[in-house]
Amino acid sequence: MSTRDPRPPLTPDLLAADFLGYQQLLTDDERALVVRAREFYAAEVAPGANQRWLDEEVPRHLAPRFAEEGLLGLGVDGDEPARRTLLTGWLRMELARVDPSTATFVGVHDGLVMGTLAVCGSEEQKAHWLPRMRRAEAVGAFALTEPDHGSDVAGGLATSARRDGDAWVLDGAKRWIGNACFADVVVVWARDVADGQVKGFLVEKGTPGFTATPIRGKTALRAVENADITLEGCRVPAANHLAGANSFKDTNEVLRRTRGGVAWEAVGVSVGAYEHALAYTRERQQFGRPLASFQLVQDHLVRMLSDITASLGMVVRVCQLEEAGERRDEHAAMAKAFCTSRMRDVVARAREVMGGNGVLAGHHVARFVADAEALYSYEGTREVNTLVVGRAVTGHGAFV
């Protein structure tokens, strides 16, 4: 029997879980940025991730460091934004691979809020907010989900907006809003009482009538501070109405773009759990042998790697369609539903091969198992995304 180690050398340029080498589709400059980001995440995000998760501590202190590394707002309003879709997706995967909570914190600020401004903001709104957000001088939040409306928010959204002279008055409530308690600006979606259309508004920190209360006791993404928002006669200037956000179609355009990002995060959660499980099985001895040398353990590892590889193939292809201007709603919906479903299986197998140690925070995988449940549900449940794809392939909507 050969004693040669079949593993490739683990260099900063190589992600071992990228079994088919999808990273090679990036340009040389993009790969260099990915490697730099990977090193940054390992040096500054990974240390303390478990403790922050246990303590429900948001890593707000890291936001300026992300800005210094040039990792915020890539492709939002720069040159060739479509070409950067694969790069930004890969970076989200790399961050979720280390800490899903930090990936969500950054995803809200960078993807949802900066993305909304890029898609729906006026030139004045973009000029005012995007440079500040890219430098992490201002943090954003995105308020769409409501206490009684999640999957049905398109037709059921109840928060109201009423034009009153040179201002809009917002009334209602929002739930599960990440970053809301400390955000400098919150994108609030509300229904105009005059025409019944969903519109977007920029609510700045300190606006009277806006209250955010942290949601405690979460068992997933504990290092993300989600909040309940109450809007009571919240008066915002007319200039804070997002110029290009005048119907739920505009809202959905933002979600279509970010839904693919959640699929990338799901791949990252899978990769992170797989890597910790693989390292554990190589080191852990049972019956006088490493766990990795047992057939049943290798079966779990290969199934995990296969799910990761299939998921990577899907998100990469969706990015290629985006870059070609051919991506449709159902493409992002399929990727989100598939990758989060495979993620659930991967993290379960990772915990299984680690036995009892798999439930200890110190061994990392328990955090990925818990966080996977949040990714599985937010930005469209598996069921709702399945119906988006089902409508595309059958021609029949089956949402109700």
TrEMBL record:
<dbReference type="InterPro" id="IPR046373">
    <property type="entry name" value="Acyl-CoA_Oxase/DH_mid-dom_sf"/>
</dbReference>
<dbReference type="Pfam" id="PF02770">
    <property type="entry name" value="Acyl-CoA_dh_M"/>
</dbReference>
<dbReference type="InterPro" id="IPR006091">
    <property type="entry name" value="Acyl-CoA_Oxase/DH_mid-dom"/>
</dbReference>
<dbReference type="InterPro" id="IPR013786">
    <property type="entry name" value="AcylCoA_DH/ox_N"/>
</dbReference>
<dbReference type="Pfam" id="PF02771">
    <property type="entry name" value="Acyl-CoA_dh_N"/>
</dbReference>
<feature type="domain" description="Acyl-CoA dehydrogenase/oxidase C-terminal">
    <location>
        <begin position="251"/>
        <end position="393"/>
    </location>
</feature>
<dbReference type="GO" id="GO:0003995">
    <property type="term" value="F:acyl-CoA dehydrogenase activity"/>
</dbReference>
<comment type="similarity">
    <text>Belongs to the acyl-CoA dehydrogenase family.</text>
</comment>
<dbReference type="InterPro" id="IPR036250">
    <property type="entry name" value="AcylCo_DH-like_C"/>
</dbReference>
<dbReference type="GO" id="GO:0050660">
    <property type="term" value="F:flavin adenine dinucleotide binding"/>
</dbReference>
<keyword id="KW-0274">FAD</keyword>
<keyword id="KW-0560">Oxidoreductase</keyword>
<dbReference type="GO" id="GO:0006635">
    <property type="term" value="P:fatty acid beta-oxidation"/>
</dbReference>
<feature type="domain" description="Acyl-CoA dehydrogenase/oxidase N-terminal">
    <location>
        <begin position="27"/>
        <end position="136"/>
    </location>
</feature>
<dbReference type="InterPro" id="IPR037069">
    <property type="entry name" value="AcylCoA_DH/ox_N_sf"/>
</dbReference>
<feature type="domain" description="Acyl-CoA oxidase/dehydrogenase middle">
    <location>
        <begin position="141"/>
        <end position="233"/>
    </location>
</feature>
<dbReference type="InterPro" id="IPR009075">
    <property type="entry name" value="AcylCo_DH/oxidase_C"/>
</dbReference>
<protein>
    <submittedName>
        <fullName>Acyl-CoA dehydrogenase</fullName>
    </submittedName>
</protein>
<dbReference type="InterPro" id="IPR045008">
    <property type="entry name" value="ACX4-like"/>
</dbReference>
<dbReference type="InterPro" id="IPR009100">
    <property type="entry name" value="AcylCoA_DH/oxidase_NM_dom_sf"/>
</dbReference>
<keyword id="KW-0285">Flavoprotein</keyword>
<dbReference type="Pfam" id="PF00441">
    <property type="entry name" value="Acyl-CoA_dh_1"/>
</dbReference>
